[in-house]
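Quick one: sequence plus zinc ion SMILES, need structure tokens.
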Amino acid sequence: MRFTSNLREQMRKSKTSTIKSSLTDNHRRVLIKKATKLFKEKLFGVNANKVNIQVIDSRLVRDFPSNANGWAIVIEPEYYQIALCHKYRHTDREVVSTLAHEFGHIQQYMSGDLIVEEGKGITWRGALFPQESFRNSIVAQWHMRPWEIHADSVRDFLLDTYSDQLL
Ligand SMILES: [Zn+2]
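Reply:
Sure thing.
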């Protein structure tokens, strides 16, 4: 989860989950599709069908930051988008782990725990982390951000439940 308006704009324009065909890509596409279905059902239960999540495999997003494997953003209320970075050769476990982590952020957006306000900062469970704090405080470190720690716990929960079916 990051906030980069340029990326967000590109993703708005990217309507489809475009993946050029090859055997490897087809395998990856099937894996992502299956995992998305399972994760939605697990996290949102009977409401799964009402939750709009578009998953794109973002080979086409040119400025995907080199150190990020995925993103989750709110496109508009009730409509979310996950992007997975397809620049590198990821193992199945890496793909599924990234997807599961991003589902953690979707859950946070839906519950209101996580609110991203571009130019202002991030609100986590009512506490504002101003944009400038990302340079000079504890949350400057990605792995110390409470929403990332929480998203990792959601990831572990989903993988514990589904690794047998997916991997
Ligand atoms: Zn994250």
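The chain is about 45% helix and 20% strand. Confidence is low (pLDDT under 50) at residues 15-22.
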